[in-house]
Specification:
single chain; about 425 residues; mainly alpha; globular
Length: about 425
C-alpha cells in the first residue's frame, strides 16, 4: 500500500507548497499597496522567467547523477567537477548580463535600482539552489527535496513578516525571497554532501557522444522551461509596462487564475512516471490521455464555479476591498490557464516519448503571443484574450497531433503483426 501511495506524495506536497506560496502573495498584498504591489509582481514575473536557467541546471544535474553511483558524493562522479563548476559560472554570467541590461530593465518595469539588484541576487541564488536540488532529485531523495522547498517558502514567509514589521515595503519581499533561497541553499549543500573541492579533476575522458547528448538534453530542457515560464510571466510584465496603475489588480487576478496551473502541474507530476514508461504503448498512452481529459473536464466545471462565484467574493476577505476591480480579469484568466494546462500536459508527453518537433510549435506560439501583445494592448484584458486564442490553437494542434501519433503506433503494430505471425 505504501509503495502505491508514495508516487502521489510528492504531488500532494507540491499542492501544499503552492498553498504556502499563495499565502505569501496574500501577505504581500496586505503590506504593499497601490502600484508597489504591481511592481512586486512584475519583479517576481521577471524572476520566474529567468529561473529557466536554474531549472535547466536542475534537470541536467538530476539526469547525470541518476546514472552514477548514488553513494558517491557529486565531486567523485565522472562529470562531478563539471556539475560543481557549471552553476557557479552560470551564476556569474547571468548576474553580469543582468547588470549590463539594468538600465533597460529599470526603464521597462519602472522600479528603482535597489529592488532590481536584489532580484539579480535572487536569480544567482536560485541557480545554485537548483544544482543542489538536481543532486537530490537524481539520487531519488524526494523527502529531502520536499524539505528543501519547504525551507525556502517558510523561510521567506517568516523573514517577510519580520522585515515588514521593520517598515520595509518592496525591499522586504525581495530580501525575504533571497533569505529563504539562501536557507534552502545551505540545506541543499549540507544534505547533498558535496564536499568543498571545486577543483578536483577526473581522469575519465568524456566521450564526444555524451557531450552531444548533454547539449541536446540541456537545449530541450531550456526551450521547454523557457516556454512554460514565459507563458506564466510575460503578460504581467506587459501590464506593468503599459498599465502600471492597474498592475496590482491584474496581479491579484493572476494569483487566482494560476491556481488552475499549479494544481494541473501537480497532477502532471503524478503522470510523468507512467508517461515515461508507456510512451510507446498505444493502448496505455491512450488511456493516460483519456484519464487526463476526464480530469480536465472536471477542472472546467471547477474553473467556471470558482471564477464566477467563489473567487470574486473572496477578494475583499483575502486581499482587501481595494482590489475588488481584479474580479474583471478572473474569468478570462481561469480559462487561459485551463487551456495552458492542456498544452503543458502534451509538452511533457512529447519530452518523455522523445519527440522533439513539438519545440517548433512552442517557438511559434511564443512568437504569435508577442506579436498579439504588440498589436492589441488597449486594456489589460486584451493580453488575456490573446493568450486564450494562442493557447487554444496550440491545444487543438496537440490534440490532433496526439491522435495522429497514436494512429501511427497502431499501424506499425498492425504491420508488425502481419509480417511476424
Amino acid at each position: 500500500m505504501n509503495n502505491r501511495l508514495r508516487p502521489l506524495m510528492f504531488p500532494l506536497f507540491n499542492v501544499l507548497l503552492n498553498g504556502f506560496n499563495f499565502f505569501f502573495h496574500i501577505a504581500a498584498s496586505w503590506y504593499l499597496t497601490g502600484q508597489a504591489y504591481g511592481q512586486a509582481n512584475a519583479l517576481l514575473a521577471l524572476f520566474a522567467l529567468l529561473s529557466v536557467l536554474g531549472l535547466s541546471i536542475q534537470l541536467l544535474t538530476a539526469k547525470l547523477v541518476s546514472k552514477g553511483d548514488h553513494k558517491l558524493p557529486l565531486r567523485s562522479l565522472t562529470l562531478g567537477p563539471l556539475l560543481l563548476k557549471a552553476p557557479l559560472l552560470l551564476t556569474v554570467l547571468a548576474i553580469v548580463m543582468l547588470v549590463i541590461f539594468h538600465p533597460l530593465l529599470r526603464s521597462l518595469l519602472g522600479v528603482q535600482s535597489g529592488p532590481l539588484f536584489m532580484l539579480y541576487g535572487l536569480v544567482g541564488l536560485h541557480i545554485l539552489v537548483s544544482s543542489c536540488r538536481g543532486d537530490l532529485q537524481g539520487r531519488e531523495r524526494m523527502l529531502a527535496l520536499n524539505v528543501n522547498y519547504y525551507i525556502e517558502v517558510l523561510g521567506k514567509l517568516s523573514l517577510f513578516f519580520v522585515l515588514a514589521a521593520l517598515g520595509l515595503k518592496l525591499e522586504a519581499l525581495l530580501l525575504a525571497s533571497c533569505g529563504g533561497m539562501l536557507l534552502s541553499l545551505l540545506h541543499g549543500w549540507i544534505v547533498s554532501a558535496r564536499g568543498l573541492s571545486l577543483f578536483s579533476h577526473s581522469g575519465t575522458r568524456i566521450p564526444s557522444g555524451l557531450w552531444k547528448s548533454l547539449g541536446q538534453d540541456f537545449t530541450d530542457s531550456l526551450i521547454t522551461n523557457l516556454f512554460i515560464l514565459f507563458c506564466i510571466s510575460i503578460d504581467m510584465l506587459y501590464v506593468q509596462h503599459y498599465f502600471p496603475e492597474q498592475a496590482s489588480s491584474y496581479a491579484i487576478a493572476l494569483k487566482y487564475s494560476q491556481l488552475v496551473y499549479y494544481v494541473s502541474y501537480s497532477l502532471i507530476a503524478a503522470f510523468i512516471p507512467k508517461l515515461g514508461a508507456h510512451g510507446h504503448d498505444r493502448q496505455a498512452l491512450g488511456k493516460l490521455i483519456a484519464v487526463y481529459a476526464g480530469l480536465m473536464a472536471v477542472a472546467a466545471i471547477c474553473v467556471y464555479v470558482g471564477t464566477s462565484f467563489v473567487f470574486p467574493s473572496s477578494i475583499p476577505v483575502l486581499f482587501g476591498s481595494s482590489y475588488q476591480s481584479a474580479e474583471v480579469f478572473i474569468p478570462w484568466g481561469g480559462w487561459v490557464y485551463w487551456l495552458f494546462s492542456i498544452v503543458l500536459f502534451f509538452v511533457h508527453m512529447h519530452v518523455l516519448v522523445g519527440r522533439r518537433k513539438f519545440m517548433f510549435s512552442l517557438i511559434a506560439g511564443a512568437a504569435a503571443l508577442l506579436a498579439a501583445f504588440h498589436m492589441a494592448h488597449n486594456k489589460p484584458s486584451d493580453f488575456l484574450l490573446s493568450e486564450l486564442v494562442v493557447y487554444g490553437a496550440i491545444s487543438f494542434y496537440f490534440v490532433v497531433d496526439a491522435y495522429i501519433y497514436l494512429l501511427k503506433i497502431k499501424l506499425r503494430g498492425d504491420s508488425a503483426h502481419e509480417y511476424n505471425p
